[in-house]
Amino acid sequence: MKKFVTDTMLMPTYVSRFSCIGGDCEDTCCAGWGVTLDKESFLQYQSSFDPVLRPLFSRYVKRYAASKSDLDYGHIELQGDVCQSCSMLSETKLCRIQERLGEAALSNTCAYYPRTIHRFGDLHQMVLSLSCPEAARLALLTEDAFDLQGEERTAPLDYITEVKPSGGLSVEAMEDVRTLLFQILRSPDATLSDRLKLIGRSCDRLTDLISQRRTGELPALLLSIEADLDSGAAMAPLAVQGEHTNLQAEVAAGLFLAAWKATELPHVRQVLGEAALGLGIREGEPVDDHALVRAYQEGLRRLGPALETVPWLLEHYFLNEALREVFPWGQESPRQHFASLVIRFALIRLLLAGRAAARETPLTPAELAETIQVACRRYQHDVNFTKYALQSLARSGWDSLERLQALL
């Protein structure tokens, strides 16, 4: 039987406002992805006598032969030759399991997506994935979306990820690092680009400190970064760095093309297709780098007025991903974690610029959020893409701090 945890969880304000919009969703999470089942849900479905569900369970609920965990014990097979969707989805885009057995019968994956919950020491923290359209709108378009609040919630124990000590640091020290990086990210006195460059530099220093086993120097390092931030000295070296739109366009387009596989999800296909059209990119055809850079620069110019209506949009994206991934502790090193965020940011900006270049009028706030949602849908959950992108940057020398900062 599932064990549940009830606790006051720290969350951005937008999380408390979220509820699934079900059949009204333009990009349902019940299509295009595999549906993983925990062991308890799998056994419940296999033993069900519901007259409508039993034949569906018998046909589509399968065991993972190589599963070594109760969390991914089985799965629901998808159906459909064109746009594959969950076999339990009704004609009205509603879940038959929930309709007939109630919400309590949903698997962990179905019941709690798009939520992510971490336990950091004694504190539970909840955030949402922006691959969900409704979550993306709430997080990206509302100015107070990232005011933090505590709210009592209940969740399965095995759905909660516990953050453990890493790199020779205590959980308390890791939280101190996160607090400072969030302070930098929310600093009102610098551009987002400069804030991210400072975060990258901090992650670089932090990675060196950990790899050289000098973790005892962490308090001094944090004090130094905080003092520079307070005085403005931290941002001064960044002010002289120029723009690198040609490099941004070429690197991001290369990653986009490498991962631009055909998708049958209409919503995703439409957004990616419009961005490619605006950039002059055609699948299977060579890219004219000069034309690409010109289109990208024009797209950025047209994007400016659209972003003025929601100036916090990209900051909110970074805040959300940093919370969701327990940045900078979610990957092999703080430096690598920063690199993966930069890659996704470069792709998001490319898609935004591409859609803006394809339009005569500015993108609406809803279309800005939609673009980021599609990027998260396509790239965020693709572990192979992240690995490929990091390896590609390393092979080409683009994983250095100086070149990563050029992408910002």
Low-pLDDT runs: none
Biggest β-sheet strands, sense, barrel = 5 strands, mixed
End-to-end span in angstroms?
A: 48 Å
Tally of distinct domains: 3
The helicity comes to 40-55%
Envelope shape: globular
Derived from helix and strand composition plus strand pairing, the structural class reads alpha+beta
As laid out across the biggest beta sheet, the strand order is 9-1-8-7-10
Q: Counting H and I runs of at least 4 residues, what is the number of helices?
A: 17
Beta-strand percent range: 5-15%
Mean of residue pLDDT values? 88
Strand runs, count: 10
What is the C-alpha radius of gyration, as a whole number of Å? 22 Å
Give the SSE string: EHEHHEEEEHHEEHEEHHHHHHHHHHH
What does this molecule look like?
The strands form 3 sheets. The chain has a 5-stranded mixed β-sheet. A hairpin with a 2-residue loop joins strand 7 (115-120) and strand 8 (123-128). The chain is built from 17 helices and 10 strands. It has 3 domains: 4-163, no CATH class; 171-238; 245-407, no CATH class. By secondary structure, the chain is α+β, with helices and mostly antiparallel strands. The protein has helices at 13-17, 39-46, 53-60, 96-101, 108-112, 133-141, 171-185, 192-211, 218-231, 245-258, 266-279, 289-308, 313-324, 334-357, 365-380, 383-396, 401-407; strands at residues 4-12, 35-37, 61-63, 74-76, 78-79, 85-86, 115-120, 123-128, 148-156, 160-163. The model has no long low-confidence stretch (mean pLDDT 88). 52% of the residues lie in helices and 12% in strands.
